[in-house]
Amino acid sequence: MAGPxxxxxxxxxxxxxxxxxxxxxxxxxxxxxxxxxxxRAPLASYPTDPHKEAITVLWPRGLGQLTGEGVxxxxxxxxxxxxxxxxxxSPEYRREEVYVRSTDFDRTLESAQAxxxxxxxxxxxxxxxxxxxxxxxxxxxxxxxxxxxxxxRSCPRYHELLREATEAAEYQTALEGxxxxxxxxxxxxxxxxxxxxxxxxxxxxDTLMCQQAHGLPLPSWASxxxxxxxxxxxxLDIGAxxxxxxxxxxxxxxxxxxxxxxxxxFSRVQRLGLPLKMVMYSAHDSTLLAxxxxxxxxxxxxxxxxxxxxxxxxxxxxxxxxxAGNVTISLFYRxxxxxxxxxxxxxxxxxxxxxxxxxxxxxxxxxxxHGVPCHGxxxxxxxxxxxxxxxxxxxxxxxxxxxxxxxxxxxPGCLRAWGxxx
Length: 422
Hints:
Blueprint: E1 3-4, E2 10-11, E3 28-36, H1 55-58, H2 68-84, E4 98-102, H3 106-119, H4 156-166, H5 169-177, H6 179-189, H7 198-213, H8 224-242, H9 247-252, H10 255-272, E5 278-283, H11 285-295, E6 308-315, E7 327-334, E8 342-344, E9 353-354, H12 355-362, E10 386-388, E11 408-410
Parallel strand pairs: 3-5, 4-5
Antiparallel strand pairs: 1-2, 3-6, 6-7, 7-8, 7-9, 10-11
Helix pairs in contact: 2-3, 7-8, 10-11
GO cellular component, one term: lysosome
GO molecular function: acid phosphatase activity; protein tyrosine phosphatase activity; receptor tyrosine kinase binding
Family: Belongs to the histidine acid phosphatase family.
């Protein structure tokens, strides 16, 4: 997205921030990766969908479920992670080293399992029955997930911020320019689209793109130009959720929460001398979009299936105190399995970023220590924040640390994916 950066810094397409760079010097001490699930069936159909009568044949496991291609994508991602961290992780899974968290959806849970099958040989498909060992994936009920489902369901303040974005002149001008297009699309799809949330138009795009990816013929009206226009409409909707105005405040209620959790987990692991090396989050494109928004890196493109955003913490030799500025964070984004991952630069901190500087730059987008109120500007504040244990019970050595591994402040009922995870 063009325009001012989230913290008064120049912003532009994410590709302008991707500069070739070597991994920073110093030993790797902690990794967090957030990835989207693999290829799935469409989430829904539409009234005139020529394939709707064959849904049970085309998608035998059901709408929204992981496909065989999605499993393959995650296996490949897991093998990439094994290759990248061969010298960092133990050859076989050790529960004190790796913790895996997923949203409570079949496609993300299965994606996590497939990823782990690529990362650890004992979980790989084709192993002899006696040698095969499944690896645990942790989750919480959908209604209780305050970490990976964005943005808000019952957070008046967030809806105030979203309304401010959708009422802006730039947004309204773009929307008016698409009125005729959406009117025609109503006639083709049998859906009411004009004056409705733009996510409804996105669902049409999702159905068409899923069908096209699996070799199904599209209706004659679904031309490349129509698909491009639907993608532009989707980008406008996403931009309103994660971009200006007040992007940092939006992030405090969405992706900034996950960003804070990643930083808090690292600090707690280092402070307590815990053996945890990697945290993996299996989630949705909405999760990655919210996290990109919190980092100031959203570029108007939706993360593809199995896209992975990684945080690598490295310690420069000679100073054991992580608060003394010897720890750096490097970001990478893998959105194409055929190429190398793209190194990302946090706006204002090119290359590997010192931890203190990283914290300073992202502070406006992360929840303050006292928590962020979801109440609207005209409503009373919600009760004092409670805590969400991100990794409680992850490993036996940590069992006694009930308040360990990055507890995170949140306000009740604040988060969900916009319109539902995808």
